[in-house]
């Protein structure tokens, strides 16, 4: 509790608008570049992607098969699918997918989160 009081005082003294403590202390399940994704954001993106994949959505949009040309060591077996995860916190429904993706398999198991941020060309790197 003492930490919260000190943090609130520091925010007040710097003239920065008050930010709820839960937002300051929430944990990043993954960080892609400078974007923090909570586990609930990752789960929401994965659930939306899996729902579309399970419904048989088969065209050039998302989700689509991820071929893992980069050779990631995912903790689950493939076939892998990629689906955008948006830094806005909204679930992707079309349009520009941004740089970040959740990767899951046909059993709805999370393989990981990857990003174009910091990668060369059209490649991906792992989010931390």
From TrEMBL:
Record field: catalytic activity: [RNA] containing guanosine + H2O = an [RNA fragment]-3'-guanosine-3'-phosphate + a 5'-hydroxy-ribonucleotide-3'-[RNA fragment]
Pfam families xref list: Ribonuclease
Cell membrane as UniProt keyword: no
Record's signal peptide: 1-18
Keyword terms: Disulfide bond, Endonuclease, Hydrolase, Lyase, Nuclease, Signal
Keyword Hydrolase part of the UniProt annotation: yes
Gene3D superfamilies associated with the record: Microbial ribonucleases (3.10.450.30)
Gene Ontology molecular function: any one: ribonuclease T1 activity
Enzyme Commission (EC) number: 4.6.1.24
Domain of life: Eukaryota
Family stated for the protein in its record: Belongs to the ribonuclease N1/T1 family.
Protein name: ribonuclease T1
Organism in which the protein naturally occurs: Penicillium frequentans
Lineage of origin: Eukaryota, Fungi, Dikarya, Ascomycota, Pezizomycotina
């Amino acid at each position: 509790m003492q930490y919260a009081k000190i943090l609130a005082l520091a925010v007040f003294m710097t003239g920065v608008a008050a930010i709820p403590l839960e937002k300051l202390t929430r944990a990043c399940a993954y960080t892609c570049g400078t974007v923090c994704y909570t586990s609930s954001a990752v789960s929401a993106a994965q659930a939306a992607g899996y729902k579309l994949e399970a419904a048989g959505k088969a065209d050039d949009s998302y989700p689509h098969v991820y071929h893992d040309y980069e050779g990631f060591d995912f903790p689950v077996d493939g076939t892998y699918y990629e689906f955008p995860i948006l830094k806005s916190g909204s679930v992707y429904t079309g349009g520009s997918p941004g740089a970040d993706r959740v990767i899951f398999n046909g059993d709805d198991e999370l393989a990981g989160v990857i990003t174009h941020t910091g990668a060369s060309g059209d490649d991906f790197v792992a989010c931390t």
